[in-house]
Amino acid sequence: MKKLIELKNVTKAFGENVVLKGIDLEIYENEFVTLLGPSGCGKTTTLRIIGGFVDPSSGEVLLNEKNILDIPAHKRPTNTVFQRYALFPHLDVFENVAFGLRMHSNKANIKIQTEKLKEDYQIRIDHAQDSTTKKKLKLELNKEIELIKDPNIHLKLKIDKLKNKIKTLDKTNPEFETQKQKLQEQIKAIKNDFETPKVREKRLTDKVMKYLAMVNLQGYERRSVHKLSGGQQQRVAIARALINEPKVLLLDEPLAALDLKLRQEMQYELKEIQRNAGITFIFVTHDQEEALTMSDKIVVMNEGEIQQVGKPEDIYNEPINTFVAKFIGESNIIEGIMIDDYLVEFDGVKYPCVDYGFKRNEIVDIVLRPEDLDIVPEGTTPISGVVDSVAFKGVHYEIDVKTNTRIYTVHTTDYQPEGKKVSVSFEKEDLHVMEKW
Q: b/e per residue, 243-259, with b = 16+ CB within 10 A?
């Protein structure tokens, strides 16, 4: 995949409060990337810097290898869906989604496009080496401006050429009338291709209906936004953001206001929308389930720094440090000693493992996920204790086993009564050894 966005040593401070401490991140085309972390970790600030709503204190933000820090938010190829969807209450679903397209075609926007075009061409003209190139660029600029002001300008030029051709026909030629009629038919065919208000509205309607279908809101186009559920309002906001075809869609905790069941449904819908739209999504959340369910890549952040970047499976199964292990899923984290490659010790017992590459006798942290532990008869393993508490979680029981040294949390489908003496077992593949940070 092609690299789309790159953040290089991005920092941000609000007064004495340093929010970002040198972020380096690469995001590729058509990725679903989630910025995951607790409140205040810097994830939303990172999103806002990419969108142009906040300027970094230092560093670079590259889009297709070009620095975009000087480009304001409304001129960047990004759109944002906020936690509060900011739908227009006086407009129905159709007009909410169509709003961006209508703005794109109005007079104010024509002025903005013209000024932007002039700025871009002026840079090229200033860098041109000779007067001939400068003159050529100025002519190109004038033609581009005419096209923005009048989308039919090229067709009108073709018609002018055909009319001039009619004038040059030899009237004494027996084929004169036939030739003239053919040219007039060509002119008529070109006029049929003119972009009229009616044609523009038809094209706009088709596009709005396409994006309403993408977010499963066919038949809702004339519904008032007040009569929509939270999930439906969110889909309207997403369709409105997508319709102008940005390269990147930024989503700032858009599921936070939904109830649990709807939030879970929307996780799958968002991923499907991203696949269908074929663009990059950058999603901000503090919810690990959302991140694991939807993401191609997760960026775990804490205290203004990136802790780990990877696929959901890698982040969950191979956390790089204690923070990631605790934040993604539930974990039993134990301090131990890496005796040698493939051999670790904790609580005075040596266990075979699959990890290697550490220094001998290095102090390490060991992760044991609750679902990887089994409760077995007392005395079967070196880890023995008493069932301290039992909680029913729907699909499994969460059982705490208290030993002389610690409490192990175990997720199992087998019920164990409180007070029962048991042992805890695991396989060597279940031990994940991490460096101490």
A: beebebbbbbbbbeebe
Distance CA 268, CA 281 (A): 14
**Residue 107: both structure tokens together:** 């007079």
Say how many C-beta atoms besides its own lie within 10 A of residue 112's C-beta. 16
For residue 298, what are the β-bridge partners? 34, 310
Tokens of 98: 């169509």
Alpha-carbon gap, residue 423 to 62, rounded angstroms:
54
Give the DSSP letter string of 353-414: -S---PPTTEEEEEEE-GGG-EEEETTSSS-EEEEEEEEE-SSSEEEEEE-SS-EEEEEESS
Question: What percent of the chain is helix, strand and coil (3-state, nearest 5)?
Answer: 40, 30, 30
**Which pLDDT does position 374 carry in this prediction?**
97
* Other beta carbons within 10 Å of 131: 8
pTM of the model as a whole: 0.76
With both helix axes pointing from N to C terminus, report the angle between 93-105 and 107-127 in degrees, rounded to the nearest 10.
Answer: 40
Encode pLDDT of 189-232 as tens digits: 998 888 777 888 888 999 999 999 988 899 999 999 999 988 88
Hey, which residues does 63 pair with through a beta bridge? 5, 66
Q: Do 200 and 105 contact (CB within 8 A), yes or no?
A: yes
Strand ranges of the sheet holding 58-63, from the earlier edge strand across to the other edge: 17-28, 3-14, 58-63, 66-67
The answer for residues whose C-beta is within 8 angstroms of residue 244's C-beta and 6 or more apart is 79, 100, 101, 104
Burial of 127 (0-12, 13-18, 19+ CB in 10 A): exposed
